[in-house]
Amino acid sequence: MIAAQIAVGLGLGLAATEYAFRVRDEGAFPHVNFYVADPQLGVRLQPGASMGFKLGRNPRTTIRVNASGYRGTDWPEPPQAREIVVVGDSQVFGLGVEDAETFSARLAERTGRPVLNAGVPTYGPREYLEVARELLVQRRPATVVVVLNFVNDPFELERPNTERHAVWDGWAVRRETAPAAVTQFPGRAWLFSRSHAVYALRRWLHAGASAGGPDRDDAGGRPLDPGTPSEGGWEDLVHASLRAQAQRAEAAAQHEQRRGASRAQIEALSRPLRAEQDRLRALEEELRYGDPAQFWAEVAAGRPGDIVDSRLAESGRSIVLTAELIRQAVAIREDYRKQQRKLAKQQAAELRALQAAAATLTDSREAVLAELARSAPRPRPQSVFDAYLAEFKALCDLHGAELVVVALPIDVQVDAGEWAKYGVEQGPDMRPSQILLTDVVASAEELRIRSFDATAALRAAQPGAFLDGDIHLTARGHAALAEALAERLARPLPPRVPGPGLPQGTRYAPAKPAWDAVEAVPFAGWATGTVQHLGGWLKLRLSAADAVEPIREIEVLEGGSPAAMRMTTATGMTLVTPLSVGSPLTARLYRLDGVGELRIGWEAAQPRVEVVGLAEAPGRSLVFTRPPDALCRCDTCDEMWGDPALVPACKAGQTEAKGDGCEALLGCVRHDPLFAPDCPEGQVHAFASNACFTPCDDDNPCEKGRCTPWHGAAVCVGGA
Q1: 429 in a domain, yes or no?
Q2: What pTM, to 2 d.p., does this model score?
Q3: Which helix (H) or strand (E) holds 128?
Q4: Tens digit of pLDDT for each residue in 459-468?
Q5: Which of 625, 641, 664 delimits the end of a domain?
Q6: Where along the sequence do coiled-coil regions lie (predicted)?
Q7: Range of the domain at 311
Q8: Are residues 249 and 345 in the same domain?
Q9: DSSP characters for 564-611?
Q10: Closest C-alpha among 592, 598, 602 to residue 613
Q11: pLDDT, tens only, 47-103
Q12: What φ, ψ does residue 109 adopt, rounded to 5°?
């Protein structure tokens, strides 16, 4: 009887104790306590479980698990059309908010599409992939959203949950802290996972064992838990961002170093090339004209006739002197011809050597540019998630689903003021770590995955986007994320960016020394000029003949290229454009006095030019333009060629590293890639041109111009 009374008393006392602690805790725990072990994922959620959840001073919430083992109400059967599955960790799961306040629930309201919350606390990137693999087979969703949480996902990429967490009486604990074995007895599961009194006792014992130690649980203790070897933290994120920045800086420095070395190499080639070409011109002039100085000295020594001499009707030289001059002229002519032949023989070898040297130097310079075209660098370092995203996309593609990526920042990345809730007065500057989110979005878009960085959306929701004393989102934060994700789902992917360098078989425009080494073939007709062809490029110089109006404009009708360079001068016009052997070119020529048509044909791989007049008026207002003064100060103005529209960008882009002055300016307007200006954000170089173009595709049409294919993508051309 006494034993029974004692037992009843103990039972009532324990019940009262349990009740007291349950009331104190508001019937909630600060951790999820219904995990079951899983050999592949480490843990799963117990289907049908529920619990109260309260973290520190944050409001109490209720968590319910459906029959599929995921948060929220039961999923509809059969699967619905246009379903969205969201995979992730505790941020997706929604610790600290009600079932209906998670961003998955808000996204369903915002889009009108069924959204399944498949987030599970403790999961990392490998588990997201495996959950998606299961649900793609079971549900056949139209869209899979993966949320990469930068609190820990960058460090758990190669750390599966089976190595990080173990289940201990329904709790998920870090594997390093899990017991090797437990003693099972009836009621243990409820006692150690559902009893508030036992939980309070375990907390007290843990606090006593670690008194003076560095860590407490996350229900209201020290926020900067140093963790265990199985976890990463913000320190790792800072270090990773610094490494990424260092890699990016090193890549940029190496690229600029290569460009600088190429410029130096080309300059080293150009100096002797210019010297050899000057010697060639001097030698050719000497061979052509000779030096009749002696003859003119003899003539100068003669004296005009004496006007007082009355023996001749006209004053002048004496007949004797005149006859002597004629005789000497004949002799000098013969001597000059002999000297010319002798000089030609003596210098023929030197002439051939100079021509060979010039050709070699020109070829070397062009080889450097060709190598630059093939070795254009990646515009950015790879994200740590590159291979993972490619694997995830391949999985979704296999099942006909679209993958969408969300880069979710840490609270202190969003707002440095969040450090205060952790009792940190001056936390580390997390702004440099933003590069990691930027890189993962860039990686995703390169793989044709819709993605976005949630930092801006959460920053706009501050203050109040994050829980007090914790990194998880509040209902306000979830709503902001849902709104941003819905907006991203409504927008198409950005267009592809053309590949770096040039397509196979394409070359950059030859430089002036290369053109100087190529014979300019004259042509005549309604307009006169010369034509040259080199390395897949055509150079057409239209010059004004005597008493003939110069060409004012060229309109290419067939065979044109966005890389074409047109330059008008006082004496005509120059067109330099890519044109492969055998490709036709037709252009309309405009003068003040009429219109002509120019046609380029081919004979034995050589261009042939035909220019005919047309019986029509220009039909447009022709305005005379001349090369900009900045170019005329650098080269002969009447022979200028290049793209004058590039002058402002080229002058603005001149730096000490790229080289200032005439060489850089002329190289820039003539599409020399070593002197290409930087393009504005959202634009790229294309068509072996130093001009900048906006990428486009069917989902991102051009505001102006035509969407034109180039090097695996397309850009907007024309319409200016």
Answers
A1: yes
A2: 0.69
A3: helix 125-139
A4: 999 999 999 9
A5: 625
A6: 239-286
A7: 239-374
A8: yes
A9: -EEEEETTEEEEEEE--TT--EEEEEEETTEEEEEEEEEETTEEEEEE
A10: 598
A11: 999 888 888 889 999 999 999 999 999 999 999 999 999 999 999 999 999 999 999
A12: -65, -40
